[in-house]
Amino acid sequence: MINGEKGRNVAHVIMRTVFVLDKVADSILRKKTKLTLSQLKIMMSLSDNAHYCQREVAGFLGVTEAAVSRQMDVMRKKGLLSKKKATCGHISILGKKEFMNLFYY
To answer: What is residue 64's predicted lDDT score, i.e. its pLDDT?
Structure first.
């Protein structure tokens, strides 16, 4: 185990690296698919768990329900999601075929 100053430095380097990688991935995704990294994560969670409601997606991804709601609104406007009623509220479903087609350009 790394403790003290050395441990804080290692943690800092890891956090900065993850931050930079997220930004690079987001930039590439926007250019290739018109999606953000956050939207991709939501879509991937829904492609395997179409029964998830926004609260469950938020819990799965470790973000707030409001963040998921905002991103889903954007994706609905882009025509990437459809809205259906579920027991836990509104659910958004994306067909797996349509989702995978985003990556064939």
So the answer is: 95
